[in-house]
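We emphasize that the prediction below concerns an isolated chain of 197 residues; any contacts that depend on oligomerization or on bound cofactors are therefore not represented. The input was used exactly as deposited, without trimming of termini.
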Amino acid sequence: MQLHSSGVQYKLHLCLSVTLELILKILELKLMVVIMIKDWNVMDLVCTCVTTLLLVLICLLLYFISVYPENCGSYHGPHSINCLITIWEEVGCKIKGLRYPGVLTNADANTLKIMNLRNVKANMESVKSAADGGNADQQLNCYGIAIPNTCDSHNGPHSVECLTSIWESKGCLSEGTKAPVKLNTAEKEALALLNLE
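Result of the prediction step, given as a C-alpha cell string:
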C-alpha cells in the first residue's frame, strides 16, 4: 500500500493537532462544569461529545489520507493496467488466469479501469470466490487451470487423491515410479504444499 496525497504528513499533523486541541478543550470544559454544577449527568453529555469528536477525527483521517493499492493513484479511476494487476494479485488470482488484467481485451480492461477501487476489488474477489467454490470456468479465469474435484483448493496442502488426479490428467500412469501413491512421506509432503500450477 502507498499513501497518495500531496502534503499528507502536514494534513495528518494538522488534523491530529486540531482534534487533540478540541478534546483537551472539552475535557477542560468538563472539569469546569462538574466543579460548577456538580452534576454527573453532564459528564454523560461530555462523554458523548468526546465520542463524537473521535468519530470526527476518524472521518478527517479518512478524508485527508487516501490509502490505495500499489500502482493505483486514485479511488475513482481511470486506473492503469498495473493498478488492476496489483489488485488481481492481492485477491490471490494468478498471472495464468484467463481474466488476468494484462491479457484482457481493451473493452474488458476499460470496463475495469473506469470502476472505483471497491468495485474492481469486488469484481475480482467474486471471480476468486467462485473459483474456490468449485466453478470450473472461474477457476480457469482466476488460476488458469481447472481444479480436479479431488482437490480442495488451488493452494496446498493437497491429498494423495488430488495429486493422483493431476498425475493421471497429465497422461502419467499409476505404475510410474514417481506416481503420488509411490512417493515416500517427505516427497508427498513437499509435493502437497505446491500450488496446482
